[in-house]
Amino acid sequence: MWRWCWLLLLPFVALGAEPRLQLALQQDQQGQLLLLNQQQQLARQPLSTTVTTPLGSIWKLFVYAYLVDTQQHEPDYRCDGSQPQEEIYCCDLGKKVTRDQALVRSCSLYFAPQRLQLDAQKWANYWQTQHSPAWLQDLAQLQPDTRVTVVELLQVLATLPAQQQARNLLLDVLLNQEDPLIGALGSRLRIKTWSWRDEHDPQLRQGGFAGWLIDGTPVWAQAPGTSKTVLKNYATVLNNVLPQAQPIDSQGCVEVNMFERYPIAAIRRSGEQAAVAPGRLQGRYQVEFSNGNRLAIESQGELYLHTEQGKLTLLAHLEREEYVARVLQREAAAQPVEAAKALAVVIRSYLLQNASRSGECLAISDSSASQRVAPQPATAAMRDVVGWSNDLILVGAPVTYHLDQPGKNRLSWQQAVAQAQQGMRYDAILAHAYPRANLARWDKPEVVCQPMPQAEAWLATQQKRWREALDSQPGYTPLTQFTVCRLVSGKPHVDRMYGRIYVRDLYSLQDRLDLAHEYLHLAFAAHPNGQSEEFVEQLARHLLLE
């Protein structure tokens, strides 16, 4: 008994000053607290009511839920320059921010109770009917420095109104990071980030997040640093320790015309001679095609046999993610996992780009001309791979794929397998196959890159002119593939993962200096010089001005 207590206390209290992440999960009404360093899980124990957290920015999630559930129609917030230190989290000067954007960007000004003219009594009555703790019923306690128990916070998240809408939206928190965390974590976390002063030393910062896994499991985390640094530092270990989960929220449906190019002669229940009558199928069957071939199938009630003018058709009515998993099962494999993750995103993207509508469902054929679908339920391994990237799609380019023939906007499965075996992550595999595309949310397919072909052509010409000057520089690697994207806001920068350069234009000397500057950051990415702003700027000016 004493040895067990010592093991519990040691990681949480006595292991020294190395930064640690506390991760709390509420599963089956029981809270668990995990302690992680940046490599592994160190300890796990029941979540105590003594563990507390500042609300930080989490209070905005409660206001958001209230506004959605009570069907408010508040005005957007316009950035007028009156509070510049706060407006940087909201919008550019003169622009507006919507409710959804404000939650993702963590815009305090939008959700300020004074701006929204929230009535304290109505607020209290509303949260009282939700059986919420006293601190949430008190509008005055809706402050970043209000400390609450993590147990109560997770209980509130478990029953929070409008949480499905919030979960869908909060995928953007990972998608919108400058160093996208979606590559390390997929879409598993749907979280509101927070940062605040350390409880014991106001000069230090604590950061973390609160929200859900895709199956609705409430989650909270805290570590030294800001939320941005915490997520970046612990993304890999979080991916390793978070439980596998399947999406709880509605994914929409897909109707599939099975075996479209192969006429069906009859369907028989396994081991029986008589053909089954049209209707819903349940169990194991054998399909006999008009060409004499036979195939075993299995239905858990999702397959329907129809007949029209003597012609038999088999229709599958599937949830979207089950459809993606069945295509992955039919077209490829669950290993290597990074290649499978990449293909799952492509399959989902192809569905969105090419399916038609059939009532409330998408409709697509089971065919080698589109995507082939396994005629039996997807395995757990396939569902795990697909669930990891749930809701993620590619936008900005049409997507296709092939077993062994790569091409423009076409992923080769065999090449993806080789890339995964060489250590490439799924998002890098996708960036190689679709250099102009970006990852986005299923219900918000926003294109991140607006290509600038003239800038790309100019830069390709300059590469040849600069070759002699650059080949002598240590660490220089000529780029064979890059994309120049139009910068909508902010400063020129590069996305190393996708080989993208973001600049405003090409017409002025400053525009071309920016383009050369950011190109050099990419070309020296594998060398310390690539991180030196002074080195890069001097070299860019030398190339263009001398």
Could you characterize what this model shows?
The protein is of the alpha+beta class and 546 residues long. A hairpin with a 4-residue loop joins strand 23 and strand 24 (500-503). The strands form seven sheets. The protein has a seven-stranded mixed β-sheet with strand order 12-13-14-15-11-17-16. The protein has a six-stranded antiparallel β-sheet with strand order 3-2-1-10-9-8, with helices on both faces. Strands 22-24-23 form a three-stranded mixed β-sheet. The chain is globular and about 80 Å long. Mean pLDDT is 91; it is low at 1-16. The N and C termini lie far apart (76 Å). The longest helix is centred in the C-terminal third of the chain and has 19 residues, at 453-471. Helix 4 packs across helix 10, helix 13 crosses helix 14 (337-354) and helix 13 packs across helix 15 (380-388). The chain is built from 20 helices and 24 strands.
Entry summary:
The protein has 546 residues and is of the alpha+beta class.
Q: Please state the overall shape, judged from the principal axes of the Cα atoms.
A: globular
Cα distance spanning the termini: 76 Å
Radius of gyration: 27 Å
> Can you tell me the residue ranges where pLDDT is under 50 for at least 5 consecutive residues?
1-16
Give the averaged pLDDT, no decimals.
91
